């Protein structure tokens, strides 16, 4: 009847008002998130660094320091200003269970130690409370989790950084599931990339993601054994998001400066940053991994 | 991918599932990614009801974020370090095998990987009085050899038998049985295997390459995908049930060129999933 339909319409309007953004939420969304341009200037060319809404990909084979670099950036974000940090909140999306909390905390403690001698435990706990960790076990779950995380982004304006370790974890299972159809193989990661693109535009967070290198040799026995190992292999939707690409590799033993590095393995990072005008800027840096984390040479 | 079924959550009845399927919404992912207003109109259902369903499904199937502080607390209280029984090996591993982590042993044939694992199994079952799961894919494990190693530890026959009872052996020879076994362990098998007052503290897979190698190489993607799956379930098991997982792998340079090339492809996926590695040398 007239009454019930009117009442239903009013009810729906109420619910709609409740579900659309409140003033506070709108402010939280539009208010500038902490810009992370200065997160680690030694990695990026010029006075560059990732701007709001930019994606940095760390690409390399195993043992080239990608996850260690993520720990370094994480600590830089969550530590208090006085200890050299940015006091920003971070979300860590772990897709292959590579997050080693014990290692992360030991790096955090050694950085806090150089700032204040006592009461480390309390300081450490408060830094850790700026970190949100989420484990995903498939690309479908990654898609759902990114949707779910939208709530976290809108309710926490302090959340400035999203780390994904790694974005390539589901590459082989997705390829197998997609059968012979390339579009089907890439479908799930494409959807995740598109959603990520929208979240970047709407919430202006910064993303660092690791991508494991794979060596492919499909062309047959007669061609050269390895195609360019650094060529991007993930779907195009992901490649379009990446603004800065950091290629991580192990430095050849011969180039080591024996005096300083001793037997330590030096790792190099080559950064390629694409600008909107199409030009590319480059920068190389090197570091080694100590008990206290990454140290640049 | 999770298919939408009626009864999955309150409000999702058979009629609605049929309506959604007609609108090409078959999975939870499809529903969550769609425009709620448009979908509500197409399926003649209220926006409020659909929005509520979306919220519940998302909460049920997305991974839940945990605070770093809570995660660290939990880890501190639940991680245990298991001695391997060999002091120099313990030193190499930074005190021993960590539960919640994968420790990979790789080396050429005859380098002693299995013997090291027998020793670890014997030490955990006899000294630490905890349970061990040994997945044997090569047929190399014999109770006689375990007994021999136990006899070197103790001459008490009852203690030897008790220790042997704490080692549960699974014999399988292909990757699908391996996955079946590992998923079964995650789904309650670990609790069932906990006898004699202890709980399962280590899961040894001897060896992973024996079941994966036949599927690698050429243009097949299946081998790589299955290896990722094995790594994934081992990691999940290690983290969720607090066990130390020990997969064994054969070292690369041992075999033919084509095999080693495909092994390198595979090496990335497996090694990316493992925590610490120990290279076997024949004289260690």
From TrEMBL, chain A:
InterPro entries according to UniProt: AAA+_ATPase (IPR003593), P-loop_NTPase (IPR027417), Rad51_C (IPR013632), RecA_ATP-bd (IPR020588), XRCC2 (IPR030547)
Transmembrane segments: none
GO CC term, one of those recorded: centrosome
Residue stretches of biased makeup (Basic and acidic residues): 9-19
GO molecular function: ATP binding; ATP-dependent DNA damage sensor activity; four-way junction DNA binding
Annotated spans, Disordered: 1-22
A biological process term (GO) from this entry: DNA strand invasion
Pfam families reported in the protein's UniProt record: Rad51
Gene3D superfamilies registered for this protein in UniProt: P-loop containing nucleotide triphosphate hydrolases
RecA family profile domain residues: 28-213
PROSITE patterns reported in the protein's UniProt record: RECA_2 (PS50162)
Name of the protein in its database record: X-ray repair cross complementing 2
Organism: Scophthalmus maximus (Turbot)
Lineage of producing organism: Eukaryota, Metazoa, Chordata, Craniata, Vertebrata
């Amino acid at each position: 009847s007239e009454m019930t339909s009117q009442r239903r319409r009013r009810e729906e309007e109420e619910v709609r008002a409740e579900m659309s953004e409140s003033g506070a939420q709108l402010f939280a969304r539009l208010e500038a998130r902490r810009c992370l341009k200065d997160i680690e200037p030694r990695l990026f060319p010029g006075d560059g660094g990732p701007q709001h809404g930019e994606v940095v990909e760390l690409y390399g084979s195993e043992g080239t320091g990608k996850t260690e670099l993520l720990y370094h950036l994480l600590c830089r974000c969550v530590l208090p200003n006085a200890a050299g940090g940015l006091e920003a909140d971070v979300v860590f999306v772990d897709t292959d269970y590579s997050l080693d909390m014990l290692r992360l905390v030991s790096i955090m403690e050694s950085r806090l130690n150089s700032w204040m001698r006592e009461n480390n435990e309390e300081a450490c706990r408060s830094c850790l409370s700026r970190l949100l960790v989420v484990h995903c076990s498939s690309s479908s779950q990654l898609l759902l989790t990114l949707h779910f995380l939208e709530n976290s982004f809108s309710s926490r304006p302090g959340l400035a950084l999203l780390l994904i370790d790694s974005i390539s974890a589901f590459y082989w299972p997705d390829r197998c599931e997609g059968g012979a159809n390339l579009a089907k193989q890439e479908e799930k990661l494409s959807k995740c990339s598109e959603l990520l693109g929208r979240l970047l535009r709407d919430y202006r967070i910064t993303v660092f993601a690791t991508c494991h290198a794979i060596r492919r040799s499909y062309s047959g026995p007669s061609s050269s054994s390895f195609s360019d190992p650094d060529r991007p292999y993930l779907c195009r939707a992901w490649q379009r998001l990446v603004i800065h690409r950091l290629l991580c590799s192990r430095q050849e033993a011969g180039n080591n400066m024996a005096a300083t590095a001793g037997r330590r393995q030096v790792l190099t990072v080559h950064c390629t940053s694409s600008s909107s005008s199409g030009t590319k800027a480059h920068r190389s840096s090197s570091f080694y991994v100590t008990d206290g984390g990454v140290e640049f040479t | 991918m999770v298919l939408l079924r009626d009864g999955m959550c309150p409000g999702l009845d058979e009629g609605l599932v049929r309506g959604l399927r007609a609108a090409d919404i078959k999975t939870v992912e499809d529903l969550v990614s769609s425009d709620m207003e448009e979908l509500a109109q197409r399926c003649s259902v209220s926006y409020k009801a659909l929005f509520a369903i979306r919220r519940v499904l998302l909460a049920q199937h997305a991974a839940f974020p945990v605070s770093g502080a809570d995660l660290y607390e939990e880890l501190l209280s639940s991680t245990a370090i298991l001695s391997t029984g060999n002091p120099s090996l313990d030193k190499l591993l930074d005190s021993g095998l960590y539960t919640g982590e994968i420790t990979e042993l790789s080396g050429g044939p005859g380098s002693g990987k299995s013997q090291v694992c027998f020793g670890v199994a014997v030490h955990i079952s006899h000294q630490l009085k905890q349970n061990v799961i040994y997945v044997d894919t090569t047929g190399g494990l014999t109770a006689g050899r375990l007994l021999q190693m136990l006899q070197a530890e103790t001459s008490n026959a009852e203690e030897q038998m008790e220790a042997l009872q704490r080692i549960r052996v699974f014999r399988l020879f292909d990757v699908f049985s391996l996955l079946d076994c590992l998923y079964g362990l995650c789904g309650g098998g670990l609790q069932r295997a906990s006898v004699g007052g202890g709980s399962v503290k280590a899961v040894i897979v001897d060896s992973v390459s024996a079941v994966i190698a036949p599927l690698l190489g050429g243009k097949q993607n299946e081998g790589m995908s299955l290896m990722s799956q094995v790594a994934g379930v081992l990691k999940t098991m290690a983290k969720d049930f607090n066990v130390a997982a020990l997969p064994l792998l054969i070292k690369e340079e041992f075999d033919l060129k084509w095999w080693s090339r495909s092994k390198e492809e595979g090496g990335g996926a497996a090694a990316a999933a493992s925590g610490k590695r120990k290279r076997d040398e024949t004289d260690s």
